[in-house]
């Protein structure tokens, strides 16, 4: 280990100890919730020498718990071992000097997610530990995983697609590196999350290649912080809808680019790493809102001839579509999300008033009202509603995020601002933009998803 690595290691060791001892009430609560040492953990992601040393201290060890997603489906190619790595393993260099590796891992998994990029810079051994599923799988199993909000948006001036991430504990959006080039200017693509930590982008229209629909599928891993390719869809699609049920990815409807609508639907099974067709829709349509509720996928959209509004529901158990005409789809046009088995949707354009679907009465009722409405402008419009740490979050085009605990009961539901609106322009810049006719919204949020790591 070089002198610089040793200095950084000593600093991070001291910083980790400080966070471990005096990180406040929240960290104390999380530390009490998780045991200090997980004696039944699998050490398949740690060096063999460390695993052997740990095995001697553990009288009885359980079998290795395999990740829910196969490594071949979400590959993380191991780097070829070098002479320095072999010498490090031969010397049995510990993760933290003076501590067994099981105790070192118990300390490292408690480091906040925002500082994980620093851990990767300490040494190769730390980088290998954070590169696999073992480290983050352990955080998730012990209740230490953190949820971040990712927003895929289109710039209102140049039309390019970018994405930002919000750490709720810091309350500020941070720009991320560019999305894959095939989606830099794409339109009508889908977005979903599998396994809690893999963000998928599917299909869409690529204007760089003549504006035709795509079959392409890519996904981003919050654990490795990299983009990967996934098997292409069976049909070219744009302006379709996507959902996740039973850790499977479903797509349906949309257009193929030839002018006609699609009735076909597909499902991607990550355990088999392939797509296959499911039952066709009752009628071709271009969905504009959907939700998973009660084990069924509800989709509402425009017919292929754009003459009427259609509502359909898909049941994965029966593998069949059915036309829906109940009170749930009546007047349902705004973003929605499901929390604790109950479906919520925005009841106004800015999302400051929410309503819930009552199955017994088969009707929507207003349940939460912040009484702090921001108007009906495009910038203040609610672009998405997501569930974050058991609370409903309303994300608007101006990048402001408001959260409310809908389970608190009437009278105790208080709204909290997780992120304010984006930084406004100066007076001179705003005046010139208005004179030039460029006063439209700066951002248009296309998709919002929550990733856990």
UniProtKB/TrEMBL annotation:
Residues 176-394 form the FKB95-like N-terminal Kelch domain. Residues 97-135 form the F-box domain. InterPro entries: F-box-like_dom_sf, F-box_dom, Kelch-typ_b-propeller, Kelch_1, Kelch_FKB95. Signal peptide: none annotated. SUPFAM superfamilies: F-box domain (SSF81383), Kelch motif (SSF117281). It holds the Pfam family F-box. This is F-box domain-containing protein. It comes from Miscanthus lutarioriparius. The lineage of its organism: Eukaryota, Viridiplantae, Streptophyta, Embryophyta, Tracheophyta.
């Amino acid at each position: 280990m070089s002198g610089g690595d040793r200095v950084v290691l000593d600093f991070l060791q001291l910083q980790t100890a400080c966070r471990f001892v005096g990180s406040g009430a929240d960290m104390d609560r999380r530390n009490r919730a998780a045991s200090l040492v997980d004696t039944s953990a699998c050490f398949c992601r740690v060096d063999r020498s460390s695993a052997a040393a740990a095995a001697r201290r553990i009288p009885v060890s359980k079998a290795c718990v395999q990740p829910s997603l196969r490594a071949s489906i979400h590959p993380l190619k191991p780097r070829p071992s070098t002479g320095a790595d072999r010498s490090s393993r031969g010397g049995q260099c510990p993760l933290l000097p003076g501590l067994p590796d099981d105790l070192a891992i118990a300390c490292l998994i408690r480091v906040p997610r925002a500082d994980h990029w620093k851990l990767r810079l300490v040494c190769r051994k730390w980088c290998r530990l954070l590169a696999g599923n073992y480290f983050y799988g352990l955080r998730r199993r012990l209740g230490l995983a953190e949820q971040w909000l990712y927003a895929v948006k289109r710039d209102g001036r140049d039309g390019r697609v970018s994405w930002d991430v919000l750490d709720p504990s810091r309350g500020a959006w941070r720009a991320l590196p560019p999305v894959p080039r095939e989606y830099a200017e794409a339109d009508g693509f889908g977005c979903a999350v599998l396994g809690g930590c893999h963000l998928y982008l599917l299909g869409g229209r690529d204007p760089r290649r003549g504006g035709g629909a795509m079959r392409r599928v890519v996904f981003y891993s919050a654990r490795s912080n990299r983009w990967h390719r996934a098997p292409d869809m069976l049909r070219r699609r744009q302006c379709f809808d996507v959902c996740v049920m039973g850790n499977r990815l479903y797509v349906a409807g949309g257009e193929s680019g030839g002018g006609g609508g699609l009735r076909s639907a597909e499902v991607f099974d990550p355990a088999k790493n392939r797509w296959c067709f499911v039952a066709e829709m009752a009628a071709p349509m271009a969905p504009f809102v959907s939700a998973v509720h009660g084990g069924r996928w509800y989709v509402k959209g425009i017919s292929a001839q754009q003459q009427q509004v259609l509502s359909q529901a898909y049941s994965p158990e029966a593998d069949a579509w059915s036309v829906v005409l109940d009170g749930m789809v009546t007047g349902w046009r705004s973003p929605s999300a499901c929390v604790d088995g109950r479906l919520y949707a925005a009841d106004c354009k800015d999302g400051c008033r929410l309503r819930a679907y009552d199955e017994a009465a088969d009707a929507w009722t207003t349940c939460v009202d912040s009484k702090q409405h921001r108007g009906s402008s495009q910038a203040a419009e609610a672009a998405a509603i997501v569930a974050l740490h058991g609370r409903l979050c309303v994300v608007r085009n101006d990048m402001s995020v408001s959260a409310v605990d809908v389970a608190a009961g009437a009278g105790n539901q208080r709204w909290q601002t997780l992120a304010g609106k984006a930084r406004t322009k100066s007076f001179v810049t705003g005046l010139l933009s208005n004179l030039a006719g460029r006063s439209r919204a700066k951002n248009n949020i296309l998709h919002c998803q929550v990733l856990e790591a």
